[in-house]
Amino acid sequence: MDHDVPAGHDVTSGTGEDATRRYYDSSDVDAFYDAVWGGDDIHTGIYAHAQEPIADASRRTVERLADRLGDRLKDGLGPGRLVLDLGSGYGGTARYLAGRFGCRVVALNLSAAQNERHRHTNVERGLDGLIEVVTASFHDVPYSDAHFDAVCSLESFCHSDDRARVLSEAVRVLKPEGALAFTDLMAAEDTPPAALRPAVSRLGVDALATPSFYVRQLTELGLDHVDFDDHSDQLANHYVRLTDETAKRQAELRGVISPAYLDRLLGNLPLWVSAAHKRQLRWGIFSGRRAIGDQVPGAY
Question: Among 29, 120, 138, 294, which is least packed, fewest CB within 10 Å?
Answer without folding.
Answer: 120
